[in-house]
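Interim report, section 4.2 (structural modelling).
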Amino acid sequence: DVKVTQSSRYLVKRTGEKVFLECVQDMDHENMFWYRQDPGLGLRLIYFSYDVKMKEKGDIPEGYSVSREKKERFSLILESASTNQTSMYLCATNEQGRKNIQYFGAGTRLSVL
Amino acid sequence: QKEVEQNSGPLSVPEGAIASLNCTYSDRGSQSFFWYRQYSGKSPELIMFIYSNGDKEDGRFTAQLNKASQYVSLLIRDSQPSDSATYLCAVVGDNFNKFYFGSGTKLNVKP
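Predicted structure of the assembly:
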């Protein structure tokens, strides 16, 4: 069984705080992704990484950065949290290649006050 | 322009009926197609995947792919109240890395 673990289920932060969301996978997958999910907007890709120290911007990277120092860990960083970053954040992972099922973590519901 | 389109619903069906969920996509080069189920407040979980034209069956679920018409559908036979959830369609392009998700169809199965 693939296990994708997100460090927090619920998080409450204040505007301007630096926020770290951590994701760890145990399946040695190359690819890791960060999405946010908002009602009516579906899943939107923030960043993804296809190897250690490699990253690519997704559709909505503004206000976010990422770090991948080890293959199993992918961190999402909100440098200065704002209220419009209140959302559900989902980490996902998959192998590279055609049969590339994406597996999701449980999600982190972040509220920025 | 959205890459993947789904009717947001809600789609209501009585228990025991067939639920039909549809998805269209814009990239003709898309290679892999997935259906995820997401319960309220939970993360998406994989239901089906399909790579080739035609039908693929797994228990009560059938995925159908028509690449010429650029649509993929999910049929749920003998629908149960526990099937009530939002169903997300996901499509992967020819680089095999980037997933495009639809915004989901909410399904309600009434007892």
